[in-house]
Design a protein that fits this description.
By secondary structure, this protein is an alpha+beta fold. The chain has two helices and five strands; from the N terminus they run ββββαβα. The protein has one domain.
């Protein structure tokens, strides 16, 4: 489940395709200053946008993505990145340098 601590590196992926949903941050220009907004993007297998919803608060975006996409597979990309790094780190004892 996506929450306040993991929204920057977790996604939902359709288990039957490569479609995914994620939260990102952006800004709108209001009263001569930038105001943060949060996007819930649903993209297809080619990373082309299917739909995008905009929220003024991160809690709104988190609630929406969890309600809308919780039947899809939850993926923690930070965990996957750290796992890949650990497997490729090292020297002669694991041949990663060769």
């Amino acid at each position: 489940m996506i929450n306040q601590e993991n929204w920057t590196h977790c996604i939902y992926q359709n288990p039957h395709s490569l479609e995914m949903a994620q939260i990102s941050i952006g800004a709108n220009w209001e009263n001569n200053q930038a105001k943060d907004v949060y996007f819930v993007a649903h993209v297809d297998e080619n990373h082309l946008g299917v739909n995008e919803d905009i929220f003024e608060e991160i809690d709104q975006a988190i609630t929406f993505i969890n309600d809308e996409f919780n039947s899809w597979q939850f993926i923690d990309l930070e965990f996957l990145n750290n796992k890949t790094k650990k497997e490729s780190e090292g020297g002669c004892d694991n041949c990663s340098a060769h």
